[in-house]
Amino acid sequence: MQIHVGERIYQVFKEKGWTIDFFAKRVHMTKRNAQYLFKRDDISIDQLTKISKAMDYDFVQLFLLDDKQKSLAEDPSSVYTRPRKELMTVSLSLTFDQDQSGKLPEMLKRVRMAAEQLGFQLN
């Protein structure tokens, strides 16, 4: 579904209860250009950013969502495929005195917690 940016700007304009004069001043346009803006379905990102700031509404996000929907329509597989990451496995050997064996569970618990905080997975 294509988003008509000008119509969406007009909807927000109406929701805010603004007059065309007030809107035109906020977006630094003439009254005539402001009225024409509502009919346009293509607006530059620069203009859209300025309008978004003036109206305190993120119209740029609508534009990006529309582009994403278009790309999904052209190639829906792009959403479902992710590049595979190559996994590495590292084995550790631990040497300790028998006297320290009672501390082993606590040490392993701490190592696991530290690894998880860093994004590693221990098996």
UniProtKB/TrEMBL annotation:
GO terms for molecular function: DNA binding. It comes from the Bacteria. PROSITE patterns: HTH_CROC1. SUPFAM superfamilies: lambda repressor-like DNA-binding domains (SSF47413). Residues 9-62 form the HTH cro/C1-type domain. This is HTH cro/C1-type domain-containing protein. It comes from Hufsiella ginkgonis.
